[in-house]
Design goal:
heterodimer; A: mainly beta; 10-stranded mixed sheet; 3 helices; 58% strand; B: 243 residues; alpha/beta; 4-stranded antiparallel sheet; 9 helices; disordered C terminus
């Protein structure tokens, strides 16, 4: 499989890859599979009833990674893709997903990825997802990722999701259900500009005894963009939950943060923190005393905030 | 050479106009000048006016002969003026390595960042990748602030009460930092301080009192009067307190 320069650039932006990865991977390009590789421990199979793939990770698989980038370089493609991950007991793996759109045309390009994770007992999965758009067309780039997570006893998932540039509209839905001793950590980073709109909904059900969730969102809203962050944690057992929304607002942008904590057990301990505000003036002054202009200081502060 | 010409600064509050600095004129070209005086005498305001953080109500400032009165903070920084905050600023996500690299104007290797941190008594390995946020103590933040000034190495370095909150780190080390800066930058240092041990290493001492120059001159000449003045003030406070 050969990728052109535009596709290689998308691959670098969403997966930090400079070429076709080694190990297990599935590359989806313009609505079709453009390459797939399974390994001894990670099997990737296409679904037969709808678009998408099943990824099976053998119990006990350690320190392996699986890349499943999606690239759209033709304007006008809209698709819904279903990817299911079955992470075997005691496995410890990294999954790198992401979607990049290069839209130079006039038609809306949209990718809605529905990812379902079945995390087995005592398994650990790190899930990295990056969304990126580019192109000088006037058409919209839309990405609506849905992530559904079920974690069995003692399992753990770390989810890092990033959208920095070029996505005009996104609705990000994440739901998780945790069994005894399971834990989830979600870190989201979003920057919106222009007239972009981003909505994030997290819903975590802490069903298991000793389960825990930590949901952290850091976002920057510039220009006329709008962001909405809703984080719902339900403590249904002895559990701990923490959610945090930290946003920098600039220009004429708007950010709304809604905490929603449901404690349904007297031993549930749930915390929500939200802070929205402009860049602190004294931070800009400090960086200007080091010789940075006001604009350079803002860029540094944002880059650090979203790092 | 730094020249202040007729610098005045006033603010309005609910009681009307308050004059913070009143017609301050002075030329500084010594290697290390200490500015001292009671709280509220205008020391920090004067330092911020030199750095460009506060715009004076009237008067002008010349730096190496150039009128910098209308220049912004970053323009003055690029001309070679550094300012260490009395209360260091915290960030989210910006690390110690980032801020020291920004201060030096280039991406620094680990070893160079370590060097600066060691000079302020911090074990570099534990700090290089730490964020400059609430997880650091006041004393740690203060030492990192001093390290950024060392990394800049400019013609003029201003320290606003560097000793405040320095915790377990000794004064002797702080004094060594000033010695090193003197050696390395061949520039001028202005230190705002109440501490006799810091005043003791100054070439010149400026005493500000109620927004005016109380006295200014060689340390040997000024310091004895300043120290007795400080004692007098303390005694008065104690007497009033006892009443």
């Amino acid at each position: 499989m050969a990728l052109d320069q535009i596709e290689l650039n998308l691959l670098r932006e969403i997966a930090d890859l400079h070429q076709i990865p080694e190990g297990a991977y599935n590359i989806r390009l313009n609505g079709e599979s453009a390459g797939r590789n399974s390994t001894e421990n990670i099997t990737i199979e296409p679904k037969t009833d709808k678009p998408g793939i099943n990824i099976y990770i053998k119990p006990g698989t350690k320190n392996e990674a699986c890349h499943i980038p999606v690239m759209l370089s033709q304007s006008g493609i809209t698709e819904v893709v279903y990817n299911d991950f079955f992470i075997g007991e005691d496995a410890d793996v990294t999954i790198v997903a992401g979607c990049g759109i290069h839209n130079c045309g006039t038609d809306l390009t949209e990718h809605d990825g529905v990812h379902t994770f079945h995390v087995g007992k005592n398994a650990h999965v790190r899930y990295v997802e990056k969304h990126y758009g580019e192109g000088d067309g006037l058409a919209e780039n839309v990405l609506n990722p849905t992530t559904v997570v079920e974690i069995e006893e003692g399992g753990r998932m770390e989810m890092e999701t990033t959208q920095i540039k070029g996505v005009d509209s996104t609705i990000r839905e994440t739901t998780a259900r945790l069994a005894d001793g399971a834990s989830i950590e979600i870190k989201e980073k979003i920057m919106t500009h222009g007239r972009q709109v981003a909505t994030t909904n997290f819903t975590v059900d802490l069903d298991g005894e000793g389960s825990s969730a930590n949901v952290v969102s850091r976002s920057v809203a510039r220009d006329e963009s709008r962001q909405k962050f809703v984080s719902c944690i339900r403590g249904n057992n002895v559990c701990t939950g923490h959610s945090e929304c930290d946003a920098i607002i600039m220009d004429n942008a708007s950010v709304s943060a809604s905490p929603d904590l449901d404690a349904n057990n007297v031993e549930a301990s749930l915390i929500h923190e939200a802070a929205i505000g402009k860049i602190a003036g004294d931070q800009i002054i400090k960086l200007r005393t080091l010789g940075l202009t006001e604009e350079e200081a803002e860029e540094q502060i944002i880059a650090g905030f979203l790092k | 050479m730094l020249e202040l010409k007729n610098i005045s600064y006033s603010v309005e509050d609910e009681n009307g106009r308050v004059d913070i600095l009143k017609d301050v004129s002075l030329s500084l070209d010594e290697r290390l000048t200490a500015i001292t005086g009671p709280n509220g005498s205008g020391k920090s305001t004067l330092a911020k006016i030199i750095a460009g953080i506060i715009t004076p109500t009237s008067g002008s400032i010349l730096f190496d002969g150039e009128d910098i009165t209308k220049l912004g903070i970053d323009e003055r920084a690029r001309l070679g003026i550094s300012y260490a905050f009395q209360q260091p600023i915290k960030f989210k996500g910006i690390t110690v390595r980032d801020i020291i690299s920004l201060a030096s104007g280039k991406k620094l290797p680990f070893s160079a960042v370590c060097d600066y941190l060691s000079q302020v008594g911090l074990c570099a390995r534990d700090y290089v990748d730490r964020e400059i946020n609430d997880s650091l103590s006041g004393g740690e933040l203060k030492r990192i602030e001093i390290a950024t000034i060392m990394a800049r190495g400019t013609k003029l370095s201003i320290f606003d009460e560097p000793e405040a909150g320095i915790d377990l780190w000794s004064f002797q080390n702080l004094i060594q930092v000033f010695d090193k800066l003197r050696e390395k930058t061949d520039g001028m240092i202005i230190v705002i301080s109440h501490q006799e041990r810091i005043l003791n290493i100054a070439d010149k001492v400026l005493l500000l009192a109620d927004g005016r120059i109380g006295s200014y001159g060689d340390r040997e000449e000024i310091l004895p009067g300043v120290m007795s003045g400080v004692v007098d003030v303390c005694e008065k406070v104690t007497e009033q307190g006892e009443r």
